[in-house]
């Protein structure tokens, strides 16, 4: 059914795609590309975007759309689609290990490993009967790309001076290494959400800006739609709790399913 480079593990309902490391140091716009983007992407897939798109659909993943900007209305629409966990199988010291692909990335601002999170199966878009990702090579995007096959669930600028991620040469596989990238339905991951005494937000003890904090909460709500989530805020001022509740609502978090500890609000 597919050309070489991608197949389905039906037992685990997982898509597996072969890829090669083409960059393991320097700023990034992508985690993986199909062609033409090797200077800004860690991996290049051996398969086509259309084959990967089809395989994801056959394993039950529903695509949505990449992030969109309506210049006429001045409105931004974040990416939509099913959430997918992306892992990489790589040989290390003679054995195969499985790692979150995002662990090969460092955040520029905080000089720390990027936190793992699922990607959105955006599905790119069709242009003259062809998948745009096959035309421009955009595979797994770390910044807003209107033709990405998979992308982050929060906005990220593609301006060179605003890029947020660099490849980590200590974590990524060596140049030329062949790896397998796996795609499976995202599963909930333990997260501790909190505000400190200064009103700063943290996820699993690591500082998070407003967009990132809201994004992690929104992802958690999507993966566990029947659950309410607690934000540890007993050390925070009431004014900070109110401020953060407004921020979360603006960022699309269902505030009715978020409880702040120490808050007088229900």
Features:
5-stranded mixed beta sheet; 8-stranded mixed β-barrel; 16% helix; 2 domains; 266 residues; 4 helices; alpha+beta
The number of E-state strands comes to: 25
Q: What is the total domain count?
A: 2
What strand line-up does the widest sheet have? 2-5-4-17-18-14-10-20
Shape call: globular
Can you write the helix and strand succession as a string? EEEEEHEEEEEEEEEEEHEEEEEEEHEHE
Proportion of beta-strand residues? 35-45%
Indicate the mean pLDDT: 94
Could you explain the architecture of this structure?
This protein is an alpha+beta fold and 266 residues long. It folds into 2 domains: 6-185, no CATH class; 193-260. 16% of the residues lie in helices and 36% in strands. The chain contains 4 helices and 25 strands. The strands form 6 sheets. Strands 2-5-4-17-18-14-10-20 form an 8-stranded mixed barrel. Strands 23-22-21-24-25 form a 5-stranded mixed beta sheet, with helices on one face. Strands 3-19-12-13 form a 4-stranded antiparallel beta sheet, with no helix packed on it. The longest helix is centred in the C-terminal third of the chain and has 14 residues, at 210-223. It is globular. The mean pLDDT is 94.
């Amino acid at each position: 059914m597919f050309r070489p480079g991608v197949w389905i593990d039906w037992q685990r309902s997982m898509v597996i795609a072969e890829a090669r490391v083409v960059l393991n140091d320097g700023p990034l716009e992508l985690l993986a590309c199909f062609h033409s983007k090797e200077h800004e992407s860690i991996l290049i897939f051996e398969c086509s975007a259309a084959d990967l798109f089809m395989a994801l659909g056959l394993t039950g993943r529903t695509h949505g759309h990449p992030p969109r900007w309506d210049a006429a209305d001045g409105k931004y629409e974040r990416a939509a689609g099913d959430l997918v966990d992306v892992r990489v199988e790589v040989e290390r010291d003679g054995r195969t290990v499985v790692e979150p692909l995002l662990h090969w990335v460092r955040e520029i601002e905080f000089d720390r490993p990027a936190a793992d999170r699922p990607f959105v199966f955006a599905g790119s878009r069709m242009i003259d009967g062809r998948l745009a990702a096959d035309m421009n090579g955009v595979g797994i995007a770390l910044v807003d790309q209107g033709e990405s096959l998979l992308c982050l669930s929060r906005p990220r600028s593609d301006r060179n001076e605003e890029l947020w991620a660099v490849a980590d040469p200590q974590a990524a596989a060596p140049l030329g290494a062949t790896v397998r990238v796996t795609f499976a339905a995202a599963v909930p991951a333990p997260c501790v959400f909190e505000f400190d005494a200064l009103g700063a937000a943290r996820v699993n003890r690591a500082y998070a800006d407003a967009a990132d904090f809201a994004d992690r909460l929104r992802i958690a709500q999507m993966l566990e739609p029947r659950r309410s989530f607690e934000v540890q805020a007993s050390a925070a001022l009431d004014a900070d709790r109110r401020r953060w509740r407004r921020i979360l609502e603006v960022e699309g978090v269902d505030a009715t399913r978020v409880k702040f500890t120490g808050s007088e609000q229900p």
